[in-house]
Amino acid sequence: MAAGKKRRSIGSYVASGDYSDYWSTAISRAGEGEILLRGYPIEEVIARLSYVEVVHLVIRGELATQTDAQVLEAVLKSAVDQQLINSAACAARYTASASPESVIPALAGGMLASGTVTGSPQQCAEMLCAALETGEAANTVVEHWLAAPGYLPGLGHPLHKQVEPRAAALRRLVEPAGAWGSACRLLEEIARALGLRRGTGGSLPVNLAGMIACVMVDRGWHPLEIGGLGALVYGPALVAHAVEEIQSGVPLRIIPAQLGARYTGPALRHLPPRKGSDS
To answer: pTM for the whole thing?
Structure first.
């Protein structure tokens, strides 16, 4: 939803009986022999724009500048794959093992596993936007997040303790394009402040979700858009995992005891007799 746009209420439609704008969209218009995408004829879009430029136009509503396109292209190819560390890949493979007729359920399952713990950049983008809007210093941001449940988004990785290679590669592409802005610098300061707060003397590495968040906030993207982009960039990997699972995986994957399945409930017990029953 655009900033400042009033949310419509179903109650107001029921009360007024006027549903003239109930289903409306500013994204595209389709009529007999004509499709307009954000006002541009689809034929021109297909013939003249790159895939990256189309993605920008669809999501943001306007044509990308050269810098916009450079940054978005770098982001779109940054996730690639990370074996089975990302639980979205595991979710996709589980779904594919149970529904091998199509990759689409698996793709949807993997997308649904993209969240605050599994690599979504939305929470970090929200943190950065709020801090930039209020002028909060990095130390204040760290103190606020350490006092709240959960963890400080955009920093740290279970495997990459010093440098997150994908995030570092994305930064190397973004900085020369002149797109390393205030959100990126703020996240760096937050990483340093967190390191000092923890007494490690160094910064936690910015992970890929954090890097996507800061560079796209600096390009003016909304956190909701950035969250969706985070799932989109991992989409090709999910398709690859789903296809591999269907073609060469194990049908209906399970978790046997040999791979860590463990029961931690009560020992064997029996239901007590019901009142008035002999058994």
So the answer is: 0.85
Query: Which of these three, 207, 227, 247, is where a domain ends?
Result: 227
Inter-residue contact 127 to 154 (CB < 8 Å): yes
Q: Are 116 and 153 in contact (CB under 8 A)?
A: yes
User: Rounded to whole angstroms, how far apart are CA atoms 81 and 235?
Assistant: 10
Q: 38: domain range?
A: 34-64
pLDDT in tens, 112-160: 888 777 778 999 999 999 999 888 888 888 888 887 776 788 887 766 6
Asked whether residue 170 is assigned to any structural domain, the reply reads yes
In terms of phi and psi (left: phi > 0; alpha: psi -120 to 50; beta: otherwise), the region of 4 is left
CB 96 within 8 A of CB 103: yes
What single letter denotes the amino acid at residue 114?
A: S
Structure tokens at 10: 């179903």
Residue 241 phi/psi, 5-degree rounding, is -65, -40
